[in-house]
């Protein structure tokens, strides 16, 4: 994938970029990671998690190779780059795109022999909060909101990967499909957009933020049971009618006012949407 991406980037830059003025990036899924304890092994596990999550893709495209910890833990199962391939893939992105929803807590997990996969090679346990049971799965199934985690991700990527422009390409909150008065989503968006602004103020090179999602769709992990849309879609009706949720009206006002409005606004259902 890395070599194919670099080939497509070279083709675009050589034949189209001068005229179209476009840029080429890549998207990575992102969690912020907190060490479960302040022990040395948990701090190292947190760094290792970040190297696996971000470095697997961004390492070659920014620096020309995988993080050293990946090469050590994965060994011969990790493809290696020749010198010419390393030079070819290095710098093959103009921006970083991220999907971000939540944070995890990480602690060390001994690297053992046996069945090995991405999670085992990472050699960590993770959980959605300090009190959740540990899991070796790639991501826990339950997690609290943590807007500050998005700020930390944006600042980390700016510092660790050469200050490339960053776009938050997915960020949002799920709700039951029949909910229209989605105050939880409004609060979520307010806090995460605020966190993005805090990252900007602290020097993160953020160029864009996109809410997931404009309207309900078939979700990869939840099907039609949960929706991220600011517009509800009635999937029981063959016509698939749409209806604006509270978050759609809030977000519309937010954009029309360039992110600045009165402290309290009343939507047309009579509920208050704090901004």
TrEMBL record:
Signal peptide: none annotated. Belongs to the glycosyl hydrolase 1 family. It comes from the Eukaryota. PANTHER family: 4-HYDROXY-7-METHOXY-3-OXO-3,4-DIHYDRO-2H-1,4-BENZOXAZIN-2-YL GLUCOSIDEBETA-D-GLUCOSIDASE, GLYCOSYL HYDROLASE. This is Uncharacterized protein. Transmembrane segments: none annotated. GO terms for molecular function: beta-glucosidase activity. GO terms for biological process: carbohydrate metabolic process. The lineage of its organism: Eukaryota, Viridiplantae, Streptophyta, Embryophyta, Tracheophyta. Pfam families: Glyco_hydro_1 (PF00232).
């Amino acid at each position: 994938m890395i070599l194919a991406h670099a080939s497509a980037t070279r083709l675009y830059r050589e034949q189209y970029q001068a005229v179209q003025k476009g840029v080429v990036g890549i998207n990575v899924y992102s969690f912020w990671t907190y060490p479960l304890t302040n022990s040395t092994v948990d701090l190292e596990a947190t760094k290792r998690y970040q190297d696996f999550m971000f470095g697997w893709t961004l390492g070659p495209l920014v620096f020309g190779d995988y993080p050293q910890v990946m090469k050590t833990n994965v060994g011969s199962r990790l493809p290696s780059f020749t010198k010419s391939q390393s030079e070819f893939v290095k710098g093959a992105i103009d921006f970083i795109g991220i999907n971000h929803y939540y944070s995890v807590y990480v602690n060390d997990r001994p690297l053992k022999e046996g069945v090995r996969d991405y999670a085992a090679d990472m050699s960590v346990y993770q959980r959605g909060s300090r009190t959740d049971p540990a899991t070796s799965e790639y991501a826990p199934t339950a997690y609290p909101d943590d807007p500050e985690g998005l700020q930390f991700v944006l600042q980390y990527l700016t510092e660790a990967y050469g200050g490339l422009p960053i776009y938050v390409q997915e960020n949002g909150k799920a709700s039951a499909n029949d909910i229209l008065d989605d105050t939880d989503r409004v609060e979520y968006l307010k806090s995460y957009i605020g966190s993005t602004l805090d990252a900007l103020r602290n020097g993160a090179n953020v160029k864009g933020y996109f809410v997931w999602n404009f309207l309900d769709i078939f979700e990869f992990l939840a099907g039609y049971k949960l929706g991220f849309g600011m517009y509800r879609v009635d999937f029981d009706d063959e016509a698939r009618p749409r209806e604006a949720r509270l978050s759609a009206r809030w977000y519309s006002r937010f954009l029309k006012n360039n992110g600045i409005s009165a402290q309290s606004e009343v939507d047309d259902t009579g509920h208050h949407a704090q901004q």
